[in-house]
Amino acid sequence: MDAAGGDHLIRDETALRALYGESPPGAIWKEIDHIHPHYRAMIEAAPFMVLATAGPGGLDASPRGDPPGFVHVLDEKTLLIPDRRGNNRIDSLRNIIHDDRVALLFLIPGVGETLRVNGRAAISVAPALIGRFAFRGTLPRTVIVVRVETVFFQCPKALVRSELWNPEKHVDRKALPSTGKILADITAGKIGGEEYDRAYPERVSQTIY
């Protein structure tokens, strides 16, 4: 038996269902195929979202954030997501070109429930769409257009267990390796280090939009 469980691994859905049992009705009925006004309120209150994609190079889960309402509800079947300035890896965008399936997870500070959206995405450079997202004198290079297929809220158990919003549980950033140290150790000193850390706050400030 290996460390992952060996013969004790569950390998089919029948065994999985036998272990977990049936879902309560609310867990099923909350899932719909459009943006209900109540779900729209949650999207417009969220300043943070995770975008999950898949492509030939693998999977990606990308954090996205801006002031609340940064994801626009165009209509009950369509969401618009600005692609703000990043590191130009464009992992999510490359995946969408090859596989348009996406999953979104919206978080609202202080709220236990999260919102999950699944759908199909496309990348647009339409001026009318890009112009909707002017902020601090800048525009996104592209807008991700999501055609909604399923929407539902997630119960707060995970956030309650993790105490994510409890300020007494917040971790001091200095308790973890700095970005400069991480880069320096991973690259054997090619990049990173103390100078990287000293310049990092100003660099983030100057390139955030």
List the topology elements.
Elements: H1 13-20, H2 25-29, H3 37-45, E1 48-55, E2 58-65, E3 72-75, E4 78-83, H4 91-98, E5 101-107, E6 114-124, H5 127-130, E7 142-154, H6 157-162, H7 179-186, H8 194-207
Antiparallel strand pairs: 1-2, 1-5, 3-4, 4-7, 5-6, 6-7
Structure description:
This protein has two domains: 20-162, Electron Transport, Fmn-binding Protein, Chain A (Pnp Oxidase, Chain A); 171-207, no CATH class. 16% of the residues are buried. The chain has a seven-stranded antiparallel sheet with strand order 2-1-5-6-7-4-3, with helices on one face. The protein has helices spanning 13-20, 25-29, 37-45, 91-98, 127-130, 157-162, 179-186, 194-207; strands at 48-55, 58-65, 72-75, 78-83, 101-107, 114-124, 142-154. 30% of the residues lie in helices and 27% in strands.
